[in-house]
Amino acid sequence: MSRIMQKRSDRLEQIARWAMITIIMVIGTSQGTWAAVTRATLSPAQKVYSGDCPGKIVFNGTITVNAPGTVSYVFTRSDGATDTRIKKLLFRAAGSKPVSTTWTLGGATLPNYKGWQAIKILSPNPLNSRHAEFEVHCDPPANSAKAAHGNTDWHIDTANEFLFCKDMAGSTTTANCAPASWTKNHIHVGLTNTAAYYNDKARVATGNDTDSGNGIDKPMLFFYAGHGNPTTWNTLGDNGHQTNVLLGNILGNGQLRYFWQCSCETFAHGPRVCSSGDCDYSEPQNFDGSADSATMRNVFERWGPAIGDDLRMACGVSTLAYCHEGNVNAIWNRFNNEGRSVAESFILGLGSSSVKPICMTRGGANIADTPLYDLTFTNRRNSSGTGYLHILYSGGTQTDPPMIIWRPELIPLKLWRVRILPPGDPVEFKRRLVVRNKVEQLSDPQLAGASAIIKRNMENGTVSIRAIGAATLKAQRSVRTEAEQRKTALEFIRRIGWLDTDAGAVQVTQMLTASMADTGKKSPITPGKKDVVVSIIQRVRNGDQTIDLLGTGGRVSVTLAPSGEVLAAARTWRQTELTKEQVAIKPYERAQKEAMKKLVNAAAYKLAEWRFGYKQTAAAANRNELPVVYEFDFVPKDREKLLDYPPQQIEIAAEER
Question: Looking at the structure, do residues 316 and 457 belong to the same domain, yes or no?
Answer without folding.
Answer: no
